[in-house]
């Protein structure tokens, strides 16, 4: 069972501490029903126009506090980190994107028949002996396009963009969202431009094919 925050009013005369508010809860509730954290509202509980407690507003405040509460989890490197529930969900989505793109990379490598017509092949075979099923003539073009769409440059672009987002995202949901870019990001961007358009085409035109030969 997921624990929710306990929200209480400090009263009109004295400011009650969170541990004082927790004592009645410990006496009347079991361990799995105890609030994970207690939030004291200095302005008192929200009320409706008729003077009753606004439980809908309390539930919204409890959901907000629960999403921002830190939880200790293990990251992909085996290190323990304190993360909010929103950050944990965000990391789960990112890891699933990484898994899908890695599947695309493996599929692209498996289906690619590299150097199939290399005129400088010393064996004289002019092809590699391990060409895979997609290189055969009996495979429909639409099937080959569908399988190859899992891989190609979009996987690399996705890895780069999500990695840059993880480095620059705010540490908490309340923090101001701003990009934190550095020299490492500029280096990665330059490497990507050398791998994709337009730098390979530009340098090939300048060097006459010496830097980027066929």
Give an overview of the whole structure.
- With 214 residues, this protein is mainly alpha-helical.
- It folds into three domains: 6-68, no CATH class; 80-180; 181-214, no CATH class.
- The chain contains seven helices and four strands; from the N terminus they run βαβαββααααα.
- The chain has helices at residues 18-28, 55-68, 85-111, 141-148, 153-168, 183-195, 199-207; strands at residues 6-8, 38-40, 70-74, 80-84.
- The protein has a two-stranded parallel ribbon with strand order 1-2. Strands 3-4 form a two-stranded antiparallel ribbon.
- A hairpin with a 5-residue loop joins β3 and β4.
- α3 packs antiparallel against α5 (153-168).
- The longest helix is centred in the middle third of the chain and has 27 residues, at 85-111.
- It is elongated, with a radius of gyration of 29 Å.
- Mean pLDDT is 70; it is low at 9-15.
- InterPro entries: AMP-bd_C_sf.
- It comes from Symbiodinium necroappetens.
- This is PcbAB protein.
Provide the number of structural domains: 3
Strand content: 5-15%
Structural class: mainly alpha
Largest sheet: 2 strands, parallel
Uncertain segments are 9-15
Compute the separation of the termini in Å.
Answer: 62 Å
Topology order in helix (H) and strand (E) letters:
EHEHEEHHHHH
Number of strands: 4
Average of the residue pLDDT scores: 70
Task: Please bin the fraction of helical residues.
Answer: 40-55%
In DSSP terms, counting alpha (H) and pi (I) runs of 4 or more, how many helices? 7
* Gyration radius, rounded: 29 Å
